[in-house]
Specification:
There is one protein chain. This protein is an alpha/beta fold. The protein is about 45% helix and about 15% strand. Strands 2-1-10-9-8-5-4-3 form an eight-stranded parallel β-sheet. A two-stranded antiparallel ribbon has the order 6-7. Helix 5 runs parallel beside helix 6 and helix 10 crosses helix 12. The chain is globular, with a radius of gyration of 18 Å. The chain starts with a helix and ends with a helix. About 45% of the residues are buried. Bound molecules: 6-aminouridine 5'-monophosphate (NUP). 6-aminouridine 5'-monophosphate binds next to strand 10 and helix 11.
Length: about 280
Amino acid sequence: MKYIDKLEKTSKKNNSLLCIGLDSDYHKLPRFLLDNRYPQFAFNKAIIDATYDLVAAYKPNSAFYEVQGEHGILQLKMTCEYIRAKYRFIPVILDAKRGDIGESNDRYDRFAFEYLGVDAITLHPYLGSEALEPFLKHADKMCYILCRTSNAGAGEFQDLKTGNIPLYQVVAKHISDSWNKNKNCGLVVGATYAREIKIVRKLAPSLQLLIPGVGAQGGDLKKAVQYAMDKSGEGFVINASRSIIFASNDEDFAKRAREEALKLRDQINYFRKGGK
Ligand code: NUP
């Protein structure tokens, strides 16, 4: 099933545009889980089982698994397989920010879509569409391409003027106009830059947006939602990782994650409906 169809089905069923980031840092896991042979997986499984009916998608960030070596990568794979087996309509976005020459991208592509079996991936645009072709050729997947990132120093390159236009705007328009032939391109824009979200939405009226930066990074949820909406009040997911998964690191961590997820899902919906 296509990413976009999974996203639509799950977001409708759960009335949700919330994406939970499974950034399951080994060193932040509840201590009692550390006796488990697969602590990151055990943690993810508990979070997923407690939130599956509140989300539109899950987004594991590869860094938190790679840093644990092969055992971490195995647990990332176990997590992706678990979601696919038990909650088969919930799409999984691998946050890995890949981008290399085509030959190497082909291997990154197979790691994501064959080995892990995820539905979407985050990518850098810097090498151009010719290099990203191994990803872009999959009409059933989604390529979320970095456009305006959430970090404090995002503007160093992204705001540089090309002609008179900031680079991130060139990226947004170019991807919308000429990379999206397979209807599988999305853009990453940080909630910490609401004004830029508004501009990106104008330049790319129909692209899916992946919006991190609320919660721990302090982005403006209300503006992010208002500016990100397409004509149908959809067209985006809001990601939160730490503020949900590490709401508690006690026995009640999954219950507390559910409470935070519920709160954020409902806030997103409130602002979608024009709430002030
Ligand atoms: O611009 C970006 N900002 C960002 O935080 C692009 C991203 N992919 N992310 C990722 O979103 C980041 O790497 C992390 O996985 C997640 C945000 O986590 P948190 O701040 O909600 O804990």
